[in-house]
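pinned: reference chain
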Amino acid sequence: MSFLKQPFGQAVAIMVAAWLLIELGIPYIPPLLGVESAPVPDTVVFQYMLTVAVGVLLWVSDNEERWQAFKRPLHRTLVDPERKPLRGALLLLVPLLAAFVTWDRVRPSVAAPPSFRAIHPAPPGQISFQDRSMRITGLENPLRSRGSLEEHYEEGKRVYYQNCLACHGDALDGRGHYASGFNPAPLNFQDVGTIAQLTESFVFWRIAKGGPGLPNEGTPWNSAMPAWEDFLTEDEIWAVIVFMYEQAGKTPRTWEEAGEGGEGGEH
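pinned: its structure tokens
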């Protein structure tokens, strides 16, 4: 336990604990809340671990005494004659580890090829929304004929900036703060091939059900978008749809344009 009493040992313990929390702990939190979990992308793990490492370095170097104590084990390993076997082992193990990581990333996969995925899965005729049935076919956004569209826009703006901004971005271009951590990347709503091609009821379905609600023909798919019906009301979802179309300068397709079964899209 004396190792953990030294700054170097404490720094190692913090890094290990942070990795366990981010890589193994976080995916177990959603099931405890009754929500389906999703793995944390490797790029997100790297970003958080880098942040933790910077914090640890700031902590060990904030005073000279702790900084010298932190460097002491490293200095002894690199200089002390009695630790020559350890240096030799590190000289062998570090290149081997780097070689293994490289090999693991480039080795051919023996997994079966993925099944074909429909980029534009057909929406269901009706869905279950918050324990009640909702018919999607022919459904229009009820807020467009109820109250002030400007008020719905402002409400949708609030919902978007509280819940969607981090992934889909301030400009609705799919370049939010966390966008680089996802594959596939969040949708760019400015693209004419996304919401401009969809009816609002299709967008409601995709927001409400998220990645877990994609039909079989829409998989395999690693969408990390949650099922927002677990967090938002029906009117909040319709309001954010109003905001998305208005802010992106797009006009939603109508059911007359889409035709029977002629609609598709991805989210």
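why pinned: The beta strands are 126-129, 132-135. The chain has two domains: 2-106, 126-258.
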